[in-house]
């Protein structure tokens, strides 16, 4: 099972500070066994508020973040619910509430005791209001960093006076080149790499053409054994030439109508099944071998994509690590989403934020599956199939 989100938060602190499991459990106010059960069995019920508050205090994360993780783990909150954008007015109301709450925050000054030591002045009248403008600037910088950059977060209406004012504030805070922006990021960086989409977007690879050529070669071999049929009246000239190139038998006119169920039943009723002749059996065996090769070709193509994806993931992790981001970084490889349904790939020269630029640079520097010396995709599939057959024969 996946690691519960609450445990992930605790583990990040544990790994970063070298705290023991027993010490963490003691500080949180739960038994070590209870913490172990959270890890192995999941968080089955919502922990007490005091425990969640203790987790937030110990690991130094906002209470709302800890509560949100616990709500996810216990099913009170789901990814689908979290993915649905909230209404504009609702988000605006929350933002106003947070900024209003911040305006009431105070700093407690220190005072020196008769012993010479310092302590917080307990007199509430001594409290000093926080620098609210600095708070707002920090919040804006954090939001811009989470969004991917100043230009990205202001892209909704970049020419407005509001965008100009907010942009000036942010650039004054983090520099015109955004050199100091990333340290304000609060959201983890999650990168999902779809190797097939990346190959399509970058256009510098022949993998798609190589796969098409390999499938075409297998079709030609099949048609050389038992040709398929194409009727000239059913095909466009370009499609007809494609069929000829693949070895299909071209017949004049239109294809005959498909037999009805009654005609099929009548044919089966009078059929006299006999064993295949040696020639027919050889054809069947050859076609079965080509069918196995076609399956292995698809497996080899996926294996090549997986290997390319791992190289990409390593390169992206290295580039992102160099940014020294203050948040966790997760890079995964997705081989299952069809390439045309996967998000577009960050491309060198077309990115703005430092994170997307790092990803684009990593992708550009990673060799594609067809860039190295060696055999073709079809040859690799054939060799893989031969190895499997040799291993089975030796058993």
TrEMBL record:
Region (Disordered): 364-395
Top-level taxon: Bacteria
Residues passing through the membrane, by range: none
GO MF terms held by the record: DNA binding
Biased composition (Basic and acidic residues): 379-395
Domain HTH cro/C1-type residues, every copy: 9-66
Record protein name field: Helix-turn-helix domain protein
Organism name: Mycobacterium avium subsp. hominissuis
């Amino acid at each position: 099972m996946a690691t519960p989100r609450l445990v992930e938060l605790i583990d990040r602190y544990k790994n970063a500070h070298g705290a023991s499991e027993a010490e963490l459990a003691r500080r949180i106010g739960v038994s070590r066994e209870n913490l172990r059960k959270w890890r192995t069995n999941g968080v089955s019920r919502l922990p007490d508020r005091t425990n969640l508050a203790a987790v937030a205090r110990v690991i130094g994360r906002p209470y709302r973040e800890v509560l949100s993780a616990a709500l996810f783990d216990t099913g009170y909150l789901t990814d689908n619910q979290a993915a649905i954008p909230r209404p504009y007015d609702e988000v605006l109301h929350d933002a106003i509430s947070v900024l209003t709450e911040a305006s009431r925050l105070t700093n407690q000054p220190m005072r020196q005791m008769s012993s010479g030591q310092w302590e917080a002045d307990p007199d509430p009248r001594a409290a000093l209001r926080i620098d609210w403008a600095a708070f707002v600037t920090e919040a804006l910088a954090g939001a811009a960093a989470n969004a991917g950059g100043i230009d990205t977060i202001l892209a909704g209406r970049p020419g407005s006076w509001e965008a100009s004012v907010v942009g000036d504030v942010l650039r004054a805070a983090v520099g015109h080149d955004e050199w100091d922006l990333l340290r304000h990021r609060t959201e983890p960086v999650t990168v999902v790499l779809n190797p097939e989409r990346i190959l399509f977007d970058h256009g510098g690879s022949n993998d798609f053409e190589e796969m098409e050529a390999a499938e075409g070669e297998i079709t030609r071999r099949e048609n050389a054994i038992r040709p398929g049929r194409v009727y000239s009246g059913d095909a466009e000239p370009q499609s007809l030439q494609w069929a000829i190139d693949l070895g299909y038998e071209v017949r004049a006119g239109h294809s005959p109508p498909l037999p009805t169920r009654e005609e099929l039943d009548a044919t089966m009723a009078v059929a006299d099944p006999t064993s295949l002749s040696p020639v027919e059996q050889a054809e069947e065996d050859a076609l079965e071998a080509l069918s196995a090769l076609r399956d292995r070709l698809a497996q080899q193509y996926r294996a090549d994509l997986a290997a390319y994806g791992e190289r990409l993931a390593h390169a992206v992790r290295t580039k992102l690590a160099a940014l020294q981001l203050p948040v966790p970084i997760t890079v995964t490889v997705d081989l299952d989403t069809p390439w045309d349904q996967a998000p577009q790939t960050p491309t060198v020269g077309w990115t703005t934020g430092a994170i997307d630029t790092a990803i684009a640079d990593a992708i550009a520097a990673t060799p594609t599956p067809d860039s190295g010396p060696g055999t073709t995709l079809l040859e690799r599939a054939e060799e893989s199939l031969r190895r499997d057959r040799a291993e089975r024969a030796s058993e």
